[in-house]
Design goal:
The structure is a single chain. By secondary structure, the protein is α/β, with parallel strands linked by helices. The protein has 2 domains: 118 residues, Thiolase/Chalcone synthase (Peroxisomal Thiolase, Chain A, domain 1, 3-Layer(aba) Sandwich), CATH 3.40.47; 219 residues, Peroxisomal Thiolase, Chain A, domain 1 (3-Layer(aba) Sandwich). 32% of the residues lie in helices and 18% in strands. A hairpin with a 2-residue loop joins strand 5 and strand 6. Helix 1 crosses helix 3 and helix 4 packs across helix 11. It is globular, with a radius of gyration of 19 Å.
């Protein structure tokens, strides 16, 4: 049995101070006609225990939606969203569900930014890294330094950020819908030299929904989940080079070779929490030279990526799959593609865990 994405919707990533987890869930389901006829719900969320003092979030969300159907919550750090889609696809393929609703929901604006940043830091190892003051920007900065030392121009990272902001301008649910320039980096706030604020993701609240079915829709508005994979990497402190993102590289390489794909030609969504990470991955896969070459990609992070669409942590992977689904079918933000395949990559921490999913039109 196969699993098809047949519908979905997304709330704008933003600082939704007035909305809680249940409110966000209601809004995203309200705008998704396919979401009404489902018999299983998979919730993806990373922070409710911390940001809302709530466990068993899935049950409370389903009750709030007025449904009485089975629900399970998935938590896998930043890769929670893709893990939830993988679980839903497995349920559908096995016959455990006829139609499964995946809801990615996250609230990050309940506290001051420094508190939320601390929550995000917990994607690292608490005993070995967090207690010793290690932070995600510190690792990203070290990775950038290694890549620059190896020959990558600093402008390549800036180019990534500029492209993401430009892509986001046409995406209805993107958080940072404005363009930036190379000049913007001159006065940008330094997070951890040479990493600046413009090299980092936008953190916001969000909710995205997907419906997976055992049968495709009657129109051209469905795509098949043909592949999922996950790889666990070494912790950053145990690697010879922090910029060696071997889990992500391996997971993507296996997917690309299995389907004979060229990432320059197909729809691709890469996890770009910090600009050094997608650059390191694409370089390791042989797609980038020291002079960069991002202009050769036809459909790379057309959503604006985590950088500009925003990164509602546990919901991000669901956003990514929704965006690729739309680009392969009816279009997104006025853009359509002729690509047959879409590749989604998500990782938690600096390549601690990497997930890859492939969609086929």
């Amino acid at each position: 049995m196969s699993a098809y994405v047949v519908g979905g919707s997304a709330v704008k990533v933003d600082r939704h101070f007035e909305l809680g987890y249940r409110d966000l869930a209601y809004r995203v389901v309200r705008d998704c006609s396919e979401c009404l006829d489902v018999d299983y719900v998979v919730i993806s969320s990373a922070l409710p225990e911390l940001s809302a003092h709530q466990i068993d979030l899935g049950t409370h969300v389903v009750q709030w939606l007025g449904r009485r159907i089975p629900v399970v919550r998935v938590e896998s750090g930043e890769s929670s969203g893709l893990a939830a889609v993988e679980l839903a696809a497995s349920l559908v393929r096995s016959g455990g569900a006829r139609k499964a609703l995946v809801l990615g929901i996250e609230k990050v604006t309940e506290y001051p930014t420094y508190t939320t940043n601390y929550f995000y830091t917990l994607t690292l190892d608490y005993e070995y890294e967090v207690l010793r003051g290690v932070t995600p920007p510190a690792y990203a900065s070290l990775a950038m330094k290694e890549l620059i030392k190896s020959g990558i121009r600093r402008e390549c990272f800036s180019e990534w950020a500029i492209r993401m902001h430009e892509n986001a301008t046409s995406i209805p649910h993107a958080m940072l819908k404005f363009k930036i320039s190379y000049d913007s980096f001159r006065d940008a706030q330094v997070l951890a030299d040479p990493l600046t604020l413009y090299d980092s993701f936008a953190l916001g609240d969000g909710a995205a929904a997907l419906v997976l079915s055992s049968t495709p829709s009657r129109s051209d508005s469905s795509v098949e989940v043909v592949y999922t994979n996950a790889e666990v990497g070494l912790p950053a402190y145990a690697r010879e080079r922090i910029s060696d993102l071997s889990a992500s590289t391996k997971a993507l390489k296996v997917a690309v070779e299995k389907f004979g794909l060229n990432l320059r030609k197909v729809v691709v969504e890469l996890h770009d929490s910090y600009t050094p990470y997608p650059i390191a991955i694409l370089r390791a896969l042989g797609y980038l030279s020291n002079e960069c070459g991002l202009g050769e990609f036809e459909h790379l992070n057309l959503s604006g990526g985590l950088k500009a669409r925003g990164h509602p942590i546990g919901a991000t992977g669901v956003y990514q799959v929704y965006e690729v689904f739309k680009l392969l079918t009816t279009g997104l933000g006025g853009r359509t593609t002729s690509s047959e395949y879409g590749v989604v990559h998500s990782m938690s921490g600096p390549d601690n865990l990497s997930r890859v999913l492939v969609l086929k039109r």
